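Sequence in, structure out. Go.
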Amino acid sequence: MKTPLITLLGATGFVGSAVLRELARRPVRIRAVSRRPAVVPAGARAEIEVFTTDLTEPGRMAEAVKGADIVVHTVAHIAGTSTWRIEDGDMEAERVNVGLVADLVAALAARSDRPRVKVLFAGAVSQAGPCGKDVIDGSEPDLPAGEYDRQKLRAERLLLAADAEGVLHGVSLRLPTVFGYEPESTAPDKGVVSAMVRRALSGEPITMWHDGTVRRDLLHVQDVATAFAAAVDHAEALRGRHWVLGTGVGRPLGGVFEEVAALVARHTGEPAVQVVSVEPPAHAEAGDFRSVTVDASAFGGTTGWSPLLPLTEALRRTVAFLADEPGRGAR
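Output:
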C-alpha cells in the first residue's frame, strides 16, 4: 500500500511549523512547502521533502501539490507585526490569502488522478464577524467586518465550492486566538499573548486597550497542530463545511495578563510588572473589544479531539521559551 503524501503549505509559519512537527511523528511522506527551507523535526518518523518555493509565482502551486493525497493549507500573509490587520484593498494580501486557494483549486481540478485530494484549510473564528453572541459554535451567519476576515471567508468559500463541484474534499478549521511556544518551536508568534510576555520580560508594563474584562478563547499552537492531525484522520467525515476550534473557555484578558506578569516574575526573580489600561490606538478594530468563547464540541464529537494543554502550563512554556531568546539577556 502506498504511503500517503501530505503536502503542507506554509511549513515554516507559526501554525504550519507546529503542524509539521506533529505530522512528522507519523510514518507518512510530507512535502514541506515554504519560501525558506523548513526545519526537519528531530526524530521524525515521516519521510520529509523540503520544498522551497514562492507559491505566488505562476505554476508553483501545481508543482507543490503534484501527487499529493492530502494538502494542509496554513499559508498566511505576513504584514508588519501581525498577520490579520489588513487595509482594505491590500492586493498583496489578497494574492496570498485568496489567490493561493484559487491556484490550489485550479491545480487539483487539472489533475486526472483520483481519488479526490483532501484539503484542510486554516481559517479564522473571526470570519463570522460581530454575530452578537459570546459563545460561537460555527452555526453563525458569516458577516465579517475586517478585510482579513473577508479575505479568509472568500478563500474558504472557494475551497468549499470546489468540494461541492467534486474537485476535491475540502475542510476548513476556523482558529481562535492561537499562541505559544514549545521547546522545538521554529517560528515566531506575533500574537498578543506572546507580545505581552516579551514586554514583561523586558520589564515593561503589560498594556490593554480595555478594562481587562474582554474575554478570549486562547488555544495553544500545539493543540492546533493535534486538531489538524485529527482532521487528516477524519477528513471524509469533516468534508464540505467549516468547523470552529477552541477550548470552550473565554478568559478575561486582564486575568491572563496578570498571570503572565506573575509567571515572568517567578522565572526572572524580578518584581512583577504592572498590567495597565491604555487608550486604544487608531488601528484598533471593533473586534478588539468583543468577547469570544468557542464551542468546539461538534469538531470534538466527530474526531475525538480536545485541547490538552492547560492555560497556565501553556503560558509557562511560552515564558520559558521567550526568556531564552537570543540577545534578551538580563534586564
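Check: Residues 118 and 235 are 7 Å apart (CA to CA). The mean pLDDT is 92.
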